[in-house]
Amino acid sequence: LKMDNEESASVTAKGHTGQIIFDGAAVTIFRKGFLARATVGKGEKVIPISSISAIDWKPAGGVTNGFIGFTIAGALENRKQFGGRTTGAVKDQNSVVFLKSQQSDFEVLRQAIQKALNTRRV
To answer: What's the first-to-final CA gap in the chain, in angstroms?
Structure first.
């Protein structure tokens, strides 16, 4: 987890299927390596905070990975089957899967994004 000075207030979390940076204005998802090529593709995706309508969150369990995903206003959403939410998140370009050891960084990231969403909606 990296938290820069308060002015930029960017939060970074590195997960199993990608890395997310939130700079206060946009969420950027970076993917590289074999796993990225095999699932949703390498590269980066920038999602402006104004386009995010919801955060999808599943904490990691004892034997399962967790994930964070973003619902984009106006986009068709892939409804994940019960019991297959993490598997679906692996292939979702708006989600990043994380391991239990990476969860605390993603909790900080989630709180920062949720705070920005709440501020925007007031």
So the answer is: 28
Q: Which comes out higher in pLDDT, residue 73 or 31?
A: 31
Do 105 and 14 contact (CB within 8 A), yes or no? yes
Mean pLDDT over 70-85 rounds to 67
CA angle 41, 44, 46 (to 5 degrees): 130
d(CA 18, CA 4): 20
Q: In what side-by-side order are the strands of the sheet with 52-58?
A: 52-58, 66-72, 95-98
More confident residue, 77 or 11: 11
Show Cβ contacts of residue 51 under 8 Å, excluding neighbours closer than 6 positions.
Answer: 72, 73, 74
